[in-house]
Amino acid sequence: MKFNLIGLLAALSLFSGGASATEYIYRDLMANTLPSAKCEAKSAAIETASKQYNVNRFSKKFCQTQGYGWHVEEVKNLGTPVCDECTDADSKGKAQCHLEDMVVTCKRIKPGSVGMLPGKG
Description:
Structural class: alpha+beta
Number of helices: 3
Distance between the termini: 35 Å
Order of helices and strands: HEEHHEEEE
Largest sheet: 3 strands, antiparallel
Strand content: 25-35%
Radius of gyration: 24 Å
Number of strands: 6
Shape: elongated
Low-confidence stretches: none
Helix content: 25-40%
């Protein structure tokens, strides 16, 4: 009896598929990151602006500006590093860099696609 019940449950779990797949809304955003706080040599400033930590932080911020529930799907394009020379007397030859035209794909769950509305689906 227990063997039949276990076999039945195994067969049901094997043949059961996702009855309702979650649908998403996607949006591509293009934005610029902020420059670093300190002046560095140009090569070091470009490296700081292109660090994975900064890319993740700013891409998350870009998606969160779209409203509640928006998350990063992928970073499509890192953009181009742009540097501004520092104007301080003791920062001669140093720069602050940021990424321009960074493209990020954001997603959120499509309202009503996960069975949250009674009587639907």
